[in-house]
Amino acid sequence: MIVPFQFLLKDALRFRKMIVWILLSICAFALAMAWHQLNFGSTAKITPTDRYINVVNLLVFRLLPLASAIYSTMILSQEVEQKTIVYLLTRPIERWKLLIGRWGATVAAVIIISLLGMVTTILGSGGFSAVKISFLHDIFAIILGAAAYGSLFLFVSLIFNRALIICVLFAFGWESSVPNLATGLQKLSILAHMQAIAQHPDSEGGKKFLEGISGVLGTNTLNPTSSVFALIVFSVIMVGLSAYWFTTHEYIPREDSE
Questions:
Q1: pLDDT of res. 257
Q2: Of 1, 22, 93, 147, which one has the greatest count of Cβ atoms within 10 A?
Q3: pTM (2 decimals)?
């Protein structure tokens, strides 16, 4: 399990694959610095904490599922399309260990990417001393969110061809709308649980359109402890289902990938 984890994590963090996420982190820094300029016509004072909360909700928490969709669907789809899946499965490693090791690597990569965006947002907002918020809550939300999204997208990639399209639609369709709805439906959103765990206070300077994209237009009344439990259980179940599916089904190179 350790070998697949190390190999895929090293590959995921190559500079060529990280350059886009580094640029997006720089964008988060710039957006946090210039956030007050988006507050047209308002006399409310925008604090560093307001900047941080708005940018994290709008950019960091929204890019996390995108990164997870890209990396998670590459765990096996890349091997199938490149016709190396046969060689992968002949390695002397049990299938479930191979899958979980590779899943763990993608989750670790997504966490690193998200934390990079979080740190640049803090710096753009004024620094660690200026932002009055519990960073541990945000880190915990990112870790559990990466695990939950990664386990869900992994299972989707095992069942469907071209799973990336489905995962992206979920990340920017379902996850952009459901957190804005009633609490009962919010329980079906990973993003809503992440927001509950983060426990961000209400902030100034948000716009209705931007709040809608961020998934904070509605009132999140989910219990943080329950959300932690829900994401952990969900991740374990989805990883277990993925391991079972991968162990009991055959995978062959795709002939239409060329």
A1: 45
A2: 147
A3: 0.87
